[in-house]
Structures are given as C-alpha cells and as structure tokens.
Amino acid sequence: MKEEIFISGRNIPHIDPHLSIWEFPISLYLFLGGLSAGILLFSAFTHLLNKDEELKGTSKWAPLIVPFALAIGLLALIIDLGNPLYSWKLYTTIRLESPMSWGAWVLLIVTPLSILWVFSDLRKLFPKLDYTKLPFLFKVEDFCVKYKKQMALALIPLTIILGIYTGILLSAFNARPLWNNAILGPLFLVSGLSTAAATIILFAKSAHERHLFSKIDVLLIVIELGLIIHLIMGYYAGNEMQVEAVKILVGGDLTTLFFGFFVALGLLLPLVLEVFELMGYKVPVVVPAILIIVSGLIFRVLMVEAGQITRILY
Amino acid sequence: MMDIKSDKQHTYWNPYLGGFLLGLILIMTFFLTGRGLGASGAAKAIVTQTVHTVAPTHAENNAYYADQFLGGKVPISNWLVFEVIGVVAGAFISGSLSGRVFFRVQHSPKITARKRLWFALLGGALFGFGAQFAKGCTSGAALSGMTVLSLGGYIAMLSIFGGAFLFAYFFRKLWL
C-alpha cells in the first residue's frame, strides 16, 4: 500500500492509506460492554421471573464482575481518546441520531445501576461484610432491595441498547464498507449475550443452572452463525465496495482469524462440545465457555481492525 | 443420558486401525489439497506472523521467514494452520465422546508432574529445532514424504524413531 502514498503524494499518518485510529482498547471496550450488558440482562430477567435463589450464579455471582468490566471498558475507551479531558463534553448534549451519544448516556445510567444491582445482594454473598462504621450503606442497601424490581425493569431495555449499540457504533460509519452492514448491531448483541451466557456457565452454582445456560448458549450460537451467514451474504449482495471489503475476511489477510479462530474454534467447536455436554458426555464446561469468551474478544478486535482497512473505492 | 464407559483404559482405538486410517487421511489430503499433512509448518506460520506483526521488515528480509511471504501470501493463512485448528477441535470432540477430557499431567510415579512438564518443554523445543533443520516434522517430512515414496521421507522416519530408540535408554528413568 506504500506505493499509494508515492503516487498520490499524500502522507497522512493513521488515516492514509488506511485508518488506524481505533486500536485494542476500543475492541476491549466493545467486548466488555457487550459482556456486561448480557450478564445484567440475564440477571434482570432471573429476578423478574423470581428465580434468584434457583439461579444464584446468574442473579448474584456473575453480576459481581460487571461494575469492574464496565470500569475497565470505560477506562480503555478514555485512554484511547485523543483528548481524554474533553470526554465530559459528550454529556453536554443529547443527539438521537448519534450512536456515540446513545452509548455515552446509556453507560452513564447502566454503570451506577450495575453497582446498585450488585450492592443489593452483596451481604448475602459475603456475610462477613459489616456496614456498622458506614451506616448510610444500610440505607443504600434498603433502597436497592426495595427498588430491585424497578431496576430490573429499567435494565432490560438499557442493556439491550448497550449491547446493540456496540455494533451500531461501527455500522454507522458509511465510509467503512465492512462496518456499514445492518447485521452488525444484532450480531454484536447476540455475541455479547453468548459471551455473557458462557461467563454465567463459569459462575453457575448448580448443574441445573449450568445446563440451562448451556442450552441458552447453544441457541445463541446458532443464531449467531445465522447472522454471520447473513452478514457475509449482505456484503456479496452489496455494492462493489462491500464486495471488495469482504475479501479481507474471505480469502484475505484476516481469513484465518475470522473463520479459523472465531467461527471454527470460537463458535462451532463450543457448539459441538456444549451439545455433547447436554447429551450427557463428560465435557469440562470451562473449555467451551472460555473458547466462547476469548472468541468474542477476537471477533471485536477483528472487526475493528478489518473495518478500518476497508474503504471507499476511488 | 448415554452410557459412558467408566474404564478409561479401553476407550482408545486399536493403534493399528488408527494408523491405517491415518494413512487413508494422508491419501485424502493429497487428493483434496495437492500436498501432504504437516504440523510444525503451522507453528512456523504462527511464529512468522507474530514476528511480522512486531518487526515487519525483519521478517520480510530474513531468509528463514521470507519464503512465507512470496507472492503476497499471508503466513497465517497457510492451510496447515487450519489443519492444526481442526486437529485440536477434532481431538476435543473425540476426547469428549470417550469421556477422557479432564485436566491431568501424565507422568511416571517416580518423577513429579513439574519435572515431567519441564522435560516436555525441553523435548518439544528440541523437536522444534530438529523439524526446522530437517525442513519438516514427523507428519510433514516423514509421513507425507513416505506416502509419495520420497527417500527423504524414509530417512526422516528412520532417523526420528531410530534416534528416539537410541536416546530412550538414557532418559528411561523419566518413565520407568
């Protein structure tokens, strides 16, 4: 690609010959955002269905990591900014047509909600916790417990927005043909839910809970595979730019990462292993669960990188 | 629930049948892909790609790595990488079906698990060097070579197993 600089006489670092502005922190943030959204969504549903005690891993244990995941994700996001100190300016406006604005506001609500959500059950998980020196914490706890149902009702739409926005954020870029695909939003949502289900499997407190989430995960992986087929078909049915863009995933530089590591090792293999586990074969569930979680991160790294390489043809 | 054999001793295939099927797979590989199997080639591709990510100019100018970039090729897109991914996936599926997937370190009762792992690392590293000097490992040089009646393949196979047979005496205490 260097000859392009020579021919065009342009030398614009990070923009020409292709964008290289968004790096690993962005992918990490998109991954952690999707994962957190998924865990909170499952946890909120569990609470609304009155299955808190039956599914302790889902309702209480897995959400423990959410505030940390969101904090790390947001930190990564801010580190990646050119002018981190101006990030507060996102909160001086609401722009309904901007996915970035949606994301910023949703995160502003979901992050504290996730902390309150975890706090409501914290003493049940760690009975030795003592708030006597900070008595106002009892009041906060009472508040959290009292309004838990309302929090769950709020979390369901908010986490769906959070999960889907991570994909829409990319697909809203008209100038990047690989990102500009309507399937990306739903795909990121389903992938986030799938990594969340895999994380819950790791936290599951009973065989019943583990099997339930294995089943949910199998379903999510099948949907994800369907969406991936649509994604690829969408590129081929698209304009010349998109046909050109998809070459990076099919027979190009990132084919091994996409089909080998993401689709084969991250979706198909865990799908087969989880189905075996449900059929009664002895499979250590950490294997498919970790494959799904790692491949979720690989998928986001891949899409962020690949999208920046593809461009409008001229 | 399926009936799963609890006696793990008998869940392995007959080695002769396994070897015969491996031979058939080799022939199929030649038929489908036009080349033989390989394992160390995948490791080489991954190493080359990693080096290229960190130091692109060095990788492209280094004699050892350079041939993997010929004709604008991407090292990690080598089909051997896909093959090895398939081997890992297939091994897990096969192990799950026979209920043998769990965490353990197999070692002689006379040595510790830690010692076994250190020697495995050492042995693996030596084998990696050997495979690169010989331009192929047991699968890439010996098996695939023998399938096409290459003299080099036979020499490689005899040397690998002959060498192992000779050195086994000195390291027998790691196992017996």
3D structure, described in words:
Chain A is mainly α. Chain A has a single domain, classed as Formate dehydrogenase/DMSO reductase domain (Formate dehydrogenase/DMSO reductase fold, Up-down Bundle). Helices cover 70% and strands 0% of the residues of chain A. Chain A has helices at residues 2-8, 24-48, 56-61, 65-80, 99-119, 122-125, 136-146, 148-171, 184-203, 207-236, 240-245, 255-279, 286-309. Chain A is globular, with a radius of gyration of 21 Å. The model of chain A has no long low-confidence stretch (mean pLDDT 89). By secondary structure, chain B is mainly alpha-helical. Chain B folds into two domains: 13-102, no CATH class; 106-176, no CATH class. In chain B, 64% of the residues lie in helices and 0% in strands. Chain B has helices spanning 15-33, 40-54, 56-61, 63-66, 79-97, 113-133, 138-147, 151-168. Chain B is globular and about 50 Å long. The chains are: A mainly alpha (314), B mainly alpha (176). Chains A and B meet through helix 12 of A and helix 5 of B.
In short:
With 314 residues, chain A is mainly α. In chain A, 70% of the residues lie in helices and 0% in strands.
What's the structural blueprint in terms of helices and strands?
The complex is a heterodimer of chains A (314) and B (176).
Chain A: H1 2-8, H2 24-48, H3 56-61, H4 65-80, H5 99-119, H6 122-125, H7 136-146, H8 148-171, H9 184-203, H10 207-236, H11 240-245, H12 255-279, H13 286-309
Chain B: H1 15-33, H2 40-54, H3 56-61, H4 63-66, H5 79-97, H6 113-133, H7 138-147, H8 151-168
How many structural domains does the protein architecture of chain B include? 2
- State the helicity of chain A in percent bands: 55-70%
Low-confidence stretches of chain A at least 5 residues in length (pLDDT < 50)? none
What is the H/E order of chain B? HHHHHHHH
Alpha-carbon Rg of chain A, integer: 21 Å
Largest sheet of chain A: none
What oligomeric state do these chains adopt? heterodimer
Question: What is the fold-level CATH name, i.e. the topology of chain A?
Answer: Formate dehydrogenase/DMSO reductase fold
Number of helices of chain A: 13
Give the distance, in angstroms, between the N- and C-terminal Cα atoms of chain B.
39 Å
Quote the beta fraction of chain B.
under 5%
Principal-axes geometry of chain B comes out as globular
In this structure, how is the largest beta sheet of chain B organized?
A: none
Give the CA-based shape of chain A: globular
Structural class category of chain B: mainly alpha
What integer is the average pLDDT of chain B? Answer: 86
What is the alpha-carbon Rg of chain B in Å?
Answer: 19 Å
Distance between the termini of chain A: 14 Å
For the largest interface, the chains and their residue counts are: A-B, 23 and 20 residues
